[in-house]
Amino acid sequence: MREEILSVGIDIGTSTTQLVFSKLTIENLASSFAIPRISIVDKEVIYRSEIYFTPLKSQKEIDGEKVREIVEREYNSAGIATSDVITGAVIITGETARKQNANEVLQNLSGLAGDFVVATAGPDLESIISAKGAGADKISEDYDSTVVNLDVGGGTTNIAVFKEGKLLDTGCLDIGGRLIKIDKESGVIIYIAEKIKELAELKHIHIEEGVKPSLEALNIIVDEMVKLLEESVNIRSKSNFYERILTNKGIKKDIEVEYITFSGGVADYVYKMDTEDMFKYGDIGVLLGVAISKSNLCTKLVVKRSIETIRATVVGAGSHTTNISGSTITYTEDKFPIKNLPILKLSEEEENSGYENMVKVIKEKLKWFTLENELQPVAIAIKGKLNPSFVEIQKLGETLMAGMEDILKSDFPTILVIENDIAKVLGQTLYRQLDFKKQVICIDTIKVENGDYIDIGKPLANGRVLPVIIKTLIFSS
């Protein structure tokens, strides 16, 4: 069985807005006599939009109507209707994710992105998506090595480290090509981000809004930004300003990187694109890219060419955020799609801490999702034991029921996300223990963490699998 589905990725970044359409091929890889095992076997980008400057009403407000016009125009150009799209992601990234009306824009766009697509990106998720779009994970697997991807955009630099194909860590810095904007006609600075103002003052570099800067001053501030990037990948000792420039966190100090890739709008100028006009975009992006290409980032580490640069996030959004559940799953009613469902994840230690303690932990963690004394819909996630016995499944069901007492009182379904392949037997057991009176959704072969949110889409492959998007919703002020 082979089935093709259409996926969209829409990226609204600090600097640019763009979208891609990808064709995903799913197939049953099991033999005729085995339990079906549905996987995504091929991903092909079939349409790339124009790249637009993200329309803003002000430095803190996205122009939602103009963003919608861009997306509608590109749907028409591609000859694709919203009803054709099955899955994918709308991604608001970088500084733009911190604009005042980011959530409102997402809601307005969700209707243009098919029945299933609603997504957002905090720094960690954006780092992973852009790195996968750049191909850093594949390079680390092919070279049996540790690879870092720097996605250098307009407002932030997202960092993801992969070792032998597996994600090691993520980070994000407030460093980007549009943190200083320059009027192309007059050469006067029209915007400087607050943290860059602080950095300039700390280093006694004179730049200010409303004044034409010297090229020397801009190069000095760009060099200081690059030094902070070197610190971020552990090839330069941390300065006092490093913690200040972090968006949320950096990568672990003990990670040793061998290879480096670059993505984002600045990456083309790291990879030696034509730099005749240093201010062609009205910002310092070209200067930043050239400075990176001459830095320790490209001499102390082995540089690998990315599959995608400026389009890495949007390609990643269209092709890499979607997972497929296991085929031995339970859902007692087709009430999909379910969107923006927060995850309550138990650690392996908590799972193995005994019946009474596990019940206590679930009840305590459910308080995280109580708003004005009302419990919000939530999914319980566990790893689950491989090949459990009948008695162990019965006991696990009873334990979960006791811990989820408050969920069982609510009118939303009981939803479980299991890492190991036991969802069918556990879901059916739980449904029986609930006297068939409560809707149960139990999916497996999906790995999530606390802080993640998931969307569960409409069933595919004749109802045997469910598409799942894992995401992190972080809107910083």
TrEMBL record:
Gene3D superfamilies: 3.30.420.40
Keyword hit for Lyase: yes
Keywords: Lyase
GO MF annotation terms: lyase activity
Family annotation (PANTHER family): CELL DIVISION PROTEIN FTSA-RELATED (PTHR32432), ETHANOLAMINE AMMONIA-LYASE REACTIVASE EUTA (PTHR32432:SF13)
Full protein name: Ethanolamine ammonia-lyase
Gene name of the record: eutA
